[in-house]
Each structure stands twice: as C-alpha cells, then as structure tokens.
Amino acid sequence: MADRARIVIVGGGVAGIEVATSLGRGGRADVTLADRSLSHVWKPMLHTFAAGTARADRQKVDFFAQARRNGFRFQPGALVGIDREARRARLAVEAAEGRPAVEIAYDLLVLAVGSRANDFGTPGVAEHCLTIDDLTEAEHFHAQLRCHLLARLDGGGLLEIAIVGGGATGVELAAELKHAINLLAAYGSPDLPGRLRLTLIESGPRLLPAFPEKVSRAAGRTLSDLAVEVRTGALVTAADADGFILKDGSRIPAGLKVWAAGVKAPDVLAGLDGLERSRTGQLVVRPDLRTTRDSSIIALGDCASLTDPRTGKPVPATAQAARQQAQHLARHLGRALARGDMPAADLPPFHYVEKGAIVSLADFNGWGTLGRYTFGGGRLNGLSARLTHDLLYRQHQIGLYGPLRGTMTWVLDDLDHLISPPVRLD
Ligand SMILES: Cc1cc2nc3c(=O)[nH]c(=O)nc-3n(C[C@H](O)[C@H](O)[C@H](O)COP(=O)(O)OP(=O)(O)OC[C@H]3O[C@@H](n4cnc5c(N)ncnc54)[C@H](O)[C@@H]3O)c2cc1C
C-alpha cells in the first residue's frame, strides 16, 4: 500500500461528492473523485431545469474547483471497467478519444454512479422517449420543449406532452411543466396554457405509491385542477413517434414523450469483474456498504442494493438515503484513517433512518410525511412541505461549501429570483 491510502470515488452525485469533500478535508488519505461529467448538480432539481423554472448554471458545482478547495483530486472520465486483482479502475476520457482509458490504482474503491429510469424493454421507448436522468438529458428536454413552444407561438396548435411514471419524478415534472407554461403565457402567448395537453400515465392503481394514500389522492386532485390528465392503471406497451400505446389498445398522442418510471443501475455495473448484482443491476452490498464479493469495493446511493438488517426492508433509491450513506461512510472511514487502520478496518453497519418523504408540486402545493424520528412523525402540506423539500438541497449545499458559503448561495438564489425572469426565455 502507498504511504497514504488511495481512495478512489467514482460518481460525484449526491453521495459521491459528499464523501470526497469530507475525506479530502480530513487530509489523511489520497482521495480521487472521478466523474464522466465536469460538474455536479443536485439530481432532484433536474425536472426544474427540464421545465426551465430553474437555471442549471447557477446550481452547478465544478468538480475541479471543489477538489482544489477541499484537498482531493478530480479525474474526469466515465468508468468502463475494473481489475479487482490489480485494484485498478479504468476510465474513458471523452477528450482523449482514440487513446487507451486512464487507469487509477486504489486501495479502496467507492462506487456511487447512481441509477437511471427503467423502460423494462418496452418497444419504441429508447427511440422515441426522452429521459431526465442527468443534466445533459434535462437540458436536451428543455431544448425540445422550446422548439415545440416556438412552433406554436403564433400559429396555435396543441402542445401534447405525456409522461410515463406516477412516482415523485413524474408528478413533480408534470406540475413543473404546467407552472412553466403558465409563466410563459405572460411573455406574448396568453393562450398557451389552454393549448397544453399534459398526460401523466401510471401503470399502478394510484399516483405516488411510496406515499400514504391520502397524499396520492391530494396530488391527483391538484393535478386534475391544473388540467393534467392523470391515467392510473394504464400500462404502456409501446411508444412510437406519435405517442404511447396502452395495453387496452388505446393511444395517448404526444409530440413530447418522457419516460420517468422505474429505476435500474447503469449498464457499466454489469461488466465489473464478477461483482454480485441485484435483479435491477445494483451492486449488492453488506450492511457495512462493502460489496459482497470484494471488501475493497464499497457501493452507495442508487447503485447499491442493501436490505437494512434492522427493518428487513430495502434502502430506497432516494437522495435522502444516498446522503445518509455518504455521511455514514465519511464519518467512519475518517475515524479509521485517523487510527491508521484503513482499508481493512471494519466499518459499522449502516442503518437507514426514514426522515419522511416529500413531494413538491412547483408553486402549487406540496405534501410530506415525517418519519417517526422527525418530530415524532406527522404530515406536512403546502408551503411547509415545499420549504422542507428545499431544505434537503440547502443542507447538501452547506455540506459542500461550509456554513458561510452555503448560506450565501441560498441568499444569492433568492436575490436572483428578484432580478431574473421566473422562467427561462433563452
Ligand atoms: C427528476 C428527479 C427528481 C427527484 N426528486 C427526488 C426528491 O425529491 N427526493 C429524493 O430523495 N430523491 C429524489 N430523486 C432521486 C435522487 O435524485 C437520487 O436518489 C439521488 O440523486 C441518488 O444519488 P447518487 O449519489 O446515488 O447518484 P446521482 O446523484 O445520480 O449521482 C451519480 C453520479 O455518477 C456519475 N456517473 C454515472 N455513471 C458514471 C460512470 N460510468 N462513470 C463516472 N461517473 C458516472 C454521474 O455523472 C453523477 O454525477 C429524484 C430523481 C430525479 C431524476
């Protein structure tokens, strides 16, 4: 082993950037963060970038700058494989096309590469639907939305959008799109809201299956009031250029089609030198977050599959769970490094603490349930739910920037709302 333990973290999303920042600040290990992108964004905001109600350039964290300030190294590149025997991770660097992949040696490898929507192989989805699983896709969706909007500015015509997936992502995206179109009406096209046909399609019996039934009903009512057509119990069997085809043979016409259902691990995990994977491709980890077949590889966040031994339930693929795992790992690895017994040190088991679930419907409404560890449980709605939703992001920013700069970014965002238009016009 080198003088200082070499910790390589692949994936600088919600979980990975927090681990890199914390271990880098500790200064006791040689920490490298690798990501296929050059900047981090808070994934739960992607639907707002897609709709144009928030601007990504204000919310991005540049990996190079974050690394410089916090004592770690940033290596751009997409993970393409690992050699477990030699303990080396292979990364493909876009700018270095034609050159062999970069190889980085590790003593401990932390995989935090997130997840994607799962189209379950439904015919036509890959060719005809958009997804919003990363910033590039959210920006692409926004560009498509803008084209459809510009085409309808003067001549009229319907703007038909259909979203598959009635979980938090689909519900929040539907509300955000409605909000964006209402705002755009003030900029020269007052009849635009009346020409939007927005359909939300869910195969299960109700929206927001992870939330209590009362919240599902309330969200359904708010969306109906906003003239979003909600189709529950509707199984999509195919997509084509003109829309979605349902199991009962009916068709939902849509020029813009979004797939926001299901969760699966990125394909690259399939080729990782024999590591155990779950049915949806996540790396199976032990309670201490180490992968079952290799204790020098840890997985966390959406790309890890863990059943909490205390509750017997799977840890959900949410930002809340990803942050808790990142904080657990950073705290205990930091302590092990201070004792000098990394990487063989035993890490204590991770236990997920359900602090509640919150869904925010743009400026219209929001609901949440608090876990029993948060003020003894309870419900939130309206403004309090929307503010609590925002708070999870602000806590993440404070974790990355420290209390002073983190609070300043919050204040700057609020000032920006006073200056800039409430919706992207470019
Ligand atoms: C629109 C939307 C809304 C959401 N809203 C909420 C919400 O309100 N509350 C909530 O709790 N959760 C929400 N989620 C889920 C939440 O965003 C995820 O659970 C969370 O981001 C998982 O964190 P992570 O660190 O595991 O992965 P991510 O945050 O997805 O980060 C993965 C990182 O890995 C990088 N990466 C991927 N593949 C490679 C590769 N091959 N090589 C190198 N780097 C790679 C990516 O660039 C990215 O930086 C939402 C998700 C979406 C899409």
Automatic annotation (TrEMBL):
Pfam families, per the entry: Pyr_redox_2
Cofactors: FAD
Signal peptide annotation: none
Question: Which keywords accompany this UniProt record?
Answer: FAD, Flavoprotein, Oxidoreductase
Q: Where does the record place the FAD/NAD(P)-binding domain? A: 6-326
Report the InterPro entries cross-referenced here.
FAD/NAD-bd_sf, FAD/NAD-binding_dom, NADH-Q_oxidoreductase
The reply on keyword Flavoprotein is yes
The reply on keyword Ubl conjugation is no
Q: Which family does it belong to?
A: Belongs to the NADH dehydrogenase family.
Recorded protein name is: FAD-dependent oxidoreductase
Provide the organism lineage as a comma list. Answer: Bacteria, Pseudomonadati, Pseudomonadota, Alphaproteobacteria, Hyphomicrobiales
